[in-house]
Amino acid sequence: MASSQKHFNAFSLVLLLLCLALPLNLARRVGFYAKSCPNAENIIRQIVQQRFKADRSVPAALLRMHFHDCFVRGCDASILIDSTNNNQAEKDASANGSVREYALIDQIKTALERACPQKVSCADIIALATRDAVSLAGGPKYNVSTGKRDGLISRASEVNLPGPGFTVSQAQQSFSARGLSLNHMVILLGGGHTIGVAHCNFFQNRLTNFQGTGAPDRTMDKALVKKLSGLCGSNTNANPTTFLDQNTSFVFDNEYYNQIRKNKGILKIDQELALDPLSARTVSKFASNNNNFRQSFVKAIIKMGNIQQGNAGEIRKNCRRTN
């Protein structure tokens, strides 16, 4: 009997060690919180719906937050951490100046902490809130694998995102470094920009003296140049915004691709997607088939949401700081 007990204990120890050795991402699954916080996804959905009723631009904001978070240290909510006297965090990097809706994440986290303290990660909140917001904007519904942990590190110096003036090749290198293909890049830019906006300072150089030519970017539609010139004016301090999809601006659809094929891309990278042989065929494919775009977007955003993060992590009590 004693011998059997020893063998059992040894087997249990080996099994435990094997489980501890498994990467945390293997534990992720759809419905991860079914037992630990069964109402979690409903709570998130209801709060996002309330916010959407007040501001239809919320889906674009959450997509941007999700993208900017995943592209630095993986999808670990490191973008939510506030800076301290000893550390400038990701959210204060210049590239993240346009990221917003931190208060919405705070509101969701507060509600979840009341319902089930320290069970739902901030990283999962971002992913689930983004999913629900995309659906509210008319986009596809999809499942999110949950069970991610929150990161312990957030440094502004690590923020290195593809910029609005990138060429397709430059942007492709950035996406490839995160395990995403050229096809994923075209899909994710389309998904974010079909309901997104841009401040004038990100494209104003295309309206007047583009690359030192003394003239607007010749690849931009002349009527659009005139319209945007009137919007942006000469007062750079005002820095207003414009929709990246000038047609169905609040609707998640494939119209963005039709716009850039008509030389109505606002950002340089948008227009480059339609002009560069590397991506032009994919743009044409999505421009002609909205269902194809929707289905492809689901696969791409799930892929992005699984960008590898380190195994270390925690469930933050407050999304703005580590425990």
TrEMBL record:
PROSITE patterns: PEROXIDASE_4. Disulfide bonds join 37-116, 70-75, 122-319, 200-232. Its cofactor is Ca(2+); heme b. Keywords: Calcium, Disulfide bond, Heme, Hydrogen peroxide, Iron, Metal-binding, Oxidoreductase, Peroxidase, Secreted, Signal. Pfam families: peroxidase. CDD domains: secretory_peroxidase. Coiled coil: none annotated. Substrate binds at residue 162. The record marks 64 as: Transition state stabilizer. Belongs to the peroxidase family. Classical plant (class III) peroxidase subfamily. This is Peroxidase. It comes from Spinacia oleracea.
